[in-house]
Here is the input.
Amino acid sequence: MSSATVTPILAAKGLVKRFGRVVALDNADFELNPGEILAVIGDNGAGKSTLIKTLSGAMIPDAGEITLEGKPVHFHSPMAARAAGIETVYQTLALSPALSIADNMFMGRERRRAGILGKYFRALDKKAMEDFARQKLSDLGLLTIQNIKQPVETLSGGQRQGVAVARAAAFGSRVVILDEPTAALGVKESRKVLDLILELRGRGLPIVLISHNMPHVFEVADRIHIHRLGRRAALINPKDYTMSDAVAIMTGAMAPPADAGRAA
Here is the structure.
């Protein structure tokens, strides 16, 4: 199906973001289609981080429009984006090492116990949160984590990434944005994270994948958004282009194909 006949789940048109005299976004466009993995690549300083932060509510654009399922939205904070069903896993993971896996899954949205204890004494429903966390990890094939109560600091890098992705998948009802999810991982743990991303896509959850790792991008992405000089330079199908082509477009060594902004 052509992307022209599909209403993007998350889109942006003409985004502008300035920091003094520096223009980080220069009339940038973006479209994420339902059920796809859209990779976002770009050289350092291209503006892709600013693009993602505007889409996730961490920054407010100076101009342009963002739409969710075709309707304009205005996110003034990451919490507003989360409330709309957009979950972001940043490169820093935003996990609290001393807290348990279950506590990290529910950080900022803890469940209270029913009745007086929860309403007036704000007692947490620890069992419900632990059961939910265990189920979500199980659903995503992360049962190598045996004890849901163990501190996150005792986990490997890949397991921590798995917890962060599982949290995003559990609460991201519309979109999951992953910022360099394999950057600090070895080959084996990277493989597990890529399998996890494909599993989420298989469940129909659209994913934005920001990555510098070209083999990973070309393995899992349905389409690739190439960002250059503050705007989208091209939107390509990885089946039609090589990794060298993508890098050449990204660096300006190769002119974007005429139809690259309308890739299926």
